[in-house]
Amino acid sequence: MANATGFLLRNNLSDTGTLPRSGGWTSCPDIIVAGTAAIGTSDLIASYGSITDKPLTQSLTNYLYIRSKNMNNAPLTQVAYLFQVDGSLVLRPEQWYSQNNLVGYLAKNPNHVGDDDTPDNPRFITQYQQTLSSQTPGEIVVTNGYTWAPDNTDHHCLVAVVADSWDAVLANYPDTGTMDGLAQWIYANPSLGWHNVNIQPITSTVYESNTAYLHSPADERITFTIIAENVPVGARVSFGAQDSTANGQMPGQDWTTVSAPVGGGSINPDFEVGTTLLVNSGYKTVFTYRTDFAGLPVPSNFKMHMTATKPITPTAQTLALVGGDNAQDSLVQSFHRAFAPTAMFRAPDGQHFGHGLDGFTTMLAATPWGGDGNGDDGDLDDTVIVVLGSHTTTPISS
Amino acid sequence: MTTSPWLALRGDLAAHAATGASPDVILGGPKPDPNYVTEYGKAFNATGDFDGTNYVYARARNAGKQLAVGTVTAYAARLSDLPNQADWVKLQTRADGSDTPISAKPGAVAVNGVPLIWEPQGAPAPSVPWCLIAEVTGDDDPPIKVPSTVTDKAGFDAWIAQQTRIAYLIVQESHVAPPALPSFSWSRKIDLENSDDTTLAAAVTCTDGPAGGVLAFSFDTPDKAGQPIGLGTTQYRLGTSYSQTRTVPAGFESTITITFTPPSDATVDAVFTVGVQTISGDGDDGDMGSDVTTLVAGYTLRLGQTLAS
Description:
- By secondary structure, chain A is mostly beta strands.
- Chain A contains six helices and 27 strands.
- In chain A, strands 1, 2, 4, 9 and 10 form a five-stranded antiparallel sheet that branches. Chain A has a four-stranded antiparallel sheet with strand order 8-5-11-12. In chain A, strands 14-21-17-18 form a four-stranded antiparallel sheet, with no helix packed on it.
- In chain A, strand 24 and strand 25 form a beta hairpin.
- Chain A is globular.
- Chain B is mainly β.
- Chain B has helices at residues 35-38, 153-160; strands spanning 7-8, 25-28, 54-62, 68-78, 89-90, 100-104, 109-111, 116-118, 130-137, 166-170, 183-191, 198-208, 214-219, 230-235, 240-248, 253-261, 268-280, 290-305.
- Chain B is elongated, with a radius of gyration of 27 Å.
- At the A-B interface, strand 14, strand 15, strand 18, strand 20 and strand 22 of A face strand 11, strand 12, strand 14, strand 15 and strand 17 of B.
């Protein structure tokens, strides 16, 4: 039997590229349906042995990826396209096998002028073609994210095609009006994949926005943060990027519930969550960030935005300033513990110090901490490691 | 459509009201408990695990005189969405089916053998709790449509009280009193010695620690607008940076306190990185640039305890 050449999109997890293909063909594991949480390239490659099939959410930006294995005996570079097909139109390829049904991704508009974002001067444009490039036979490669915000919850299918060009894609037209014919089309073309998807309705008010990011010409650790101002406690925030960094990491934060502010209240004036990772020189992407109000009313003064921050080495002046504070401090003064009322304290030799705070205080008096010899010498880059309680803390029930 | 008695779901144990307390919508384990059937007069678990997987069962009694074979379908919806059937989210089985069969002899009680899966991914706000709606359909008993005249919860309750094949449950939060837990905190004085207003950013990240732990931090001096600076008690996620970015007045001096509460009073610890910075912007061209920050305090802390065995 022959083997597939070119980039293989598997029908199912049992598909090793042996032709003719057979078996289930409507859940291609190499069309990765990630839902609203972006996934990094390294994780997508590492999960080659499994199917990622999360539900998509209506009206929100959902992330999709095409993964492929180079079955060639040489380096290979081709382009990948992804079609979305309404379930009712599956048997009418003349209605979906066209550019109108391609799933795209956002890119910063190079011709954008000023700060406006209007139909005539859009901040972002949609692109459709992604490149798959493999330098090694047998290598698994993956596209960056396609993004799709379905406008209804009708059953849909995703069809991925990898070829030399868009013309080559069009030349491989699925000239059939039957499900069996479509199956044969997929079976006969190892660079095709089909994946049925579920779309769940959006059940509350969600604000979603995009921002472009271009990193400076240096590899640096960057913290990406979403900041939601005047956001209801119980709402959720998240963000994700379309593109992985050079080491395959994806800046993103899955849904995080807004907690109550310091002092309590139903509105948090400033809720911020983020993630820190190494960002390569020239990295560019488009972030999507959002707040789900989870059925709660939207405050009129609600705002959200994203930031990217990078720490720099503190100056000598700063070191001196904070060093002065540290010099007046000590670890015993800095650390505190609240006790379970049932906690009992005793020494390793069995000496009993008592319960709760009294017991702890007695134990401290009897057990020297050993000073601040854990490197707290006033420098800013201290690593302070202290374990409070130690082996002398024992619950009364033991 | 049949009008004869068939598989019936109750609105409550007394079977005469429907205010979101159906004993026949059950949150159980991966497999049905035989007691669901044998103890028809008992309400089983109605408490949801909002951060995990919930297994949903519908319990129906065959009020007819023939074997009844039907299908259970279940939905999740927020309380405010009950009248809006289009906003209900249909639950699926682990095998991606959207419904699961149920059958009962005349007079007998049955539950669906294959549970429907509900993973709400977070606790709801108190004012909009999650509801689970279960429906039984059959060849002569099609899916039930909520009338367009139903526009609020009161109307929904009045309508569903007249239905025998559909019932709903307001999912309860766990009210089990948690055991008293220790907490561990650390404080440090920060003095910016800034001559003008400046932007202060403080971030705390748990880089290693137990799931379910809680983090909080606060400054004892408010920002320039008089707002407290800090993070209220928050169940942390590893690697996530929790931060505050505020404008503070000249001469800002404050003590930051970070508190870790472990998920249990056991041998446990967690590592936190703490950074206090001042920020100067990158200029605003509409895109997101990398702000330049100046680190004024940076620590790695391990907080926790070791209990004797």
